[in-house]
Every structure is written in C-alpha cells, then in structure tokens.
Amino acid sequence: MAIQLFVPKFRVDECLEGIRECLEKGWTGLGFKTVEMEEAWKSYTGLPHAHFLSSNTVGLELAFRLLKTKNGWGDDAEVITTPLTFVSTNHAILCAGLTPVFADVDESLCLDPASVEQRITDKTKALIFVGIGGNVGQYSKILEICKARNIALILDAAHMSGTRINGRHVCPEADVVVFSFQAVKNLATADSGMICFKNAEDDERVRKMSWLGINKDTYARTASQGAYKWMYDVEEVGFKYHGNSIMAVMGLVALKYLDSDNAYRRQLAKWYRENLGGNEKVRFIEINPECESSTHLVQIRVKNREELMLALNEHQVYPGVHYRDNTEYRMYAHGNGTCPKAAVASQEIISLPVHMGLSKADVDTVSQLVAKYAK
Ligand SMILES: *Cc1c(COP(=O)(O)O)cnc(C)c1O
Dihedral angle at the C-alpha atoms of 143, 144, 145, 146, nearest 10 degrees? Predict the structure, then answer.
C-alpha cells in the first residue's frame, strides 16, 4: 500500500449531519454556521476576533491591503518576508501593491532575526512570519524587533492551527494572524481560512472588505425592522472573500478533533525521531522547546534529496518538499542569491508522511527506507 504525504481525515457522518442541517434550513452561505465557526475559533484560540474566509490566501491579501490603506503606505512600502513558503505568502504582498523583501531563514526554517535586522530600511512597514510546519522558530525575537521598530507583524499561520507557545495558542501579539483550513492542512475543510485581527476596528473593516465593501450593519438594522434588505451602504471597494456555511460545518467538526489529531501528529514525529534521530545522514528540523507544534509537517534534511525522493517513490512512499526557495521562481528572481541558507535548505528538505491514517508500522517502513537510501 502506498504511503502518501497527506491524507485528510474527515469525520464523514458528523460533517454530513451539519451539511444536512444547512440544506434543510436553506442556508449554505455567509452567516449561520460561519458565525458559529468564528465563535468556536475565538474560544479555542483565545484570539479576540476571527472572521471566516474562503481561504488563507485571500486573508493574507486582505491583511496587507487593510493595513496599507489604514496606515497610508505607498507602493514602495517594503514587507520583509521569507523565500521558504508557499507562494501565497509572497503573492499577497504583491497583490496588495507592496514590495516583498526577502530575509534569510535559520535552522528552524523560519525567518532569522539577524537577517531581518539587516533588511530593515526606512521603507519597511511590515513583516510576515511563516510558522513552517507549525513550528514558531524565533518568533519571540521577531516580535521584539517589530515592536521596537514599529513594524506591523502579520503571521501566516497556515500550518499553525493548534500550535501553542508556553501553553498559549498563537499569536495574540501579532497585528493579524491568518489560518488555512485547506484540504491538506492539519485542520481540513475543502477550502477556507480565518483572519484574526488584534484590533476591533480592523476586524470590523475586514468584514466589509470580504463582502464587496457592503456595510452589513445597516442591513442588520433594516432587516430587524422587517424589510429593506437591499438598504445597505457600500463604503469602499471590497471583493468576495468570505466563507460559507458548508465549509464552516466541516471546520466545526474538525475543530472538535484538532487537539487529539495534533497529539497524534506529535506521536508520529516522535516515532520518526526515535527511528532516525541517531542517523548522522539525517537532520531533523529542531522545534523550539517552548513550542507545542501542530506538527503539520515533519521535516528532515539530507544531502541527496532528489535521489532519496526517487528511491522512496519506487517503494510507493510519497514525501513532499516545503518549500522550493521562492527566489528560484522567475517572478521573484530579484531576490535570488540574497538568502543563502534558504537556498541550501531548499535543496535538502523533505517532509515525511504525516497524517491520521498512518500507523507505527508505516512510520517504521518509511524510516527504514530513509535510513537505507539517505547519504
Ligand atoms: C497552504 C498555505 C497557504 C495558502 O492557504 P490556502 O488556504 O490554500 O489559501 C499560505 N501559506 C502557507 C505557508 C501555506 O502552507
């Protein structure tokens, strides 16, 4: 039997029950279950605000556009970012009309505070931190830098549903945290995400921006008086980014199991480490000891990555790579050569299979193959 990198585990009956509820009520869109999901997410994370969206990608773009217009940043405003991420992170900066500036990563594969310091100019307005695989890296140092320099901090928490630092869910100090509930993330729906602003007025505004700029307060007021659902105001240009009740139902079900699923992911990681930790050809990405990682990924580094990948594939084991250095993409080539550690990591990293369908025997099988073919 093939061993895949990711296989989502859906609690099918519970999801169908919730979807049935939506269909019978005749309410599949914004409101109803999306409100329940927002409330559940706030109480789970302890974050003060949460707005349910159709994806993390749109959330990142909304975050940058909201902060840009609120603070009056020009198009030359710079955002410090990582080359080792899914391309959504960097596209969002460009889509909002801002300038990405790449800083290098450290051993955790997250942004290195020392490199970040070197990239700061008087045009630096924001920084986006990606918690790769659920790890927090040197987030606390990055936070201090941002506070001291008055730089807005955006957290791409696509891998961080359920990640805690010293027992507290990530990350109330960031200006905005954006989660992904895409199908292969550790909290899986089909496609959706959550944007969590620190400030109430930002949360209020993003709810308008995610629905064509429509001010739903007037809608709510007039609707409660009986009629006039069309009697809303439009205050600015927004687009259609909000989530829907079908996705929210899937999120609500997955959220119930998030902590136990993540605990099992940590168990899988522990088995991999027990099997391969003593192998000098295999280097694990170290998790910050203060971090209880969601363990969206278990990443190792080897010197013969392509060869090892092919050997594993021949044995029907299909690992992944998170991620290719974005400065190798043509459109981000201006950053090529500026982040040597990310460039090397990009050649060496492998994400081992981690999902709820794996057994100890599967981990042993993968580990034995890695031990056999790593050089
Ligand atoms: C998956 C992912 C995204 C995009 O999430 P979507 O919900 O699919 O838009 C962004 N950043 C990172 C690091 C991701 O892994």
Answer: 50
Q: How far is the CA of 88 from the centre of ligand 1 (A)?
A: 6
Domain boundaries, the chain: 3-254, 258-373
Pocket of ligand 1 (CB under 6 A): 55-57, 85-86, 88-89, 130, 156, 158-159, 180, 182, 193
CA of 157 to the centre of ligand 1 (A): 8
Q: Kindly report the protein residue whose alpha carbon is nearest to atom 10 of ligand 1.
A: 88
CATH topology of domain 3-254: Aspartate Aminotransferase; domain 2 (3.40.640)
- Provide the 3-class DSSP secondary structure of residue 188: coil
Residue 219 has pLDDT above 60, yes or no: no
Which one-letter amino acid corresponds to residue 84? L
Which H helix or E strand runs over 245? helix 245-276
Tokens for 108?
């955790």
Q: How far is Cα of residue 320 from the mean position of the Cα atoms in its chain?
A: 17
In angstroms, the CA 11 to CA 4 distance is 19
Which tens digits make up the pLDDT trace of 71-116?
999 989 999 999 999 999 999 999 999 999 999 999 999 999 999 9
Cα 110 to Cα 302: distance, rounded to the nearest angstrom: 18
